[in-house]
């Protein structure tokens, strides 16, 4: 009868070479060295990775501090289902929780750092059955002023923010000008379509109501070739011509008598 095959423990990594199990503990990651200006706040970042499923009810985070000079190690912060800031010591009212357990983040913020904070901060995370593993360490150095590299980095950030703001302002102004220009063009097109075209009047043409009819009698002017004098104009009226002929006939008749 064959023995029953047992399932593998998810918290154990089996090495293929010799088949011997190797316990996989908690892995914690922190920045090795950090620098902060005296009187400012600094975020001590700590992340972790557990092979077991995260259980907020049993997971714990412990922060401790070991001074650079002589002195004993002391507790900085503790977390288990909720934050437990220190109630005494140099970090009282200076350590604040800034992590997210389900996001594998166990970071804290140390406010208003002092020169007495020069030393090593240790971050340890336990998530049973991952109760053993490395502790992340951060060596903090408190200085009077920021180093040249940090100043350059800060200047680049501020300059980039200002440059981005200027670019956004220029783009906004350009867009507004384009919109105003298009609105004016549309307004002009509407005016051209609505206002009827005014017909041009011929200045040589008079309105019938204002026309003045001039009647001129047609007269003929005879020029005497002998002395160059202008004789009286004769009327073109037929009636006057007939009267002149009659008078001429009567004169001729009288002379014949």
Automatic annotation (TrEMBL):
Broad class of the protein's primary localization: membrane
Membrane topology type: Single-pass type I membrane protein
Ranges of Acidic residues composition bias in the record: 240-257
Compartments in which it is found: Membrane
Span list, region Disordered: 225-257
Keywords: Disulfide bond, Glycoprotein, Immunoglobulin domain, Membrane, Signal, Transmembrane, Transmembrane helix
One GO process term, biological-process aspect: cell-cell adhesion
Residue span(s) of domain Ig-like: 21-144
Sequence intervals crossing the membrane: 151-175
Keyword Cell division among record annotations: no
GO annotation, cellular component aspect: plasma membrane
Family indicated by similarity: Belongs to the myelin P0 protein family.
Record-given protein name: Myelin protein zero-like protein 2
Source species of the chain: Merluccius polli
Phylogenetic classification of the source organism: Eukaryota, Metazoa, Chordata, Craniata, Vertebrata
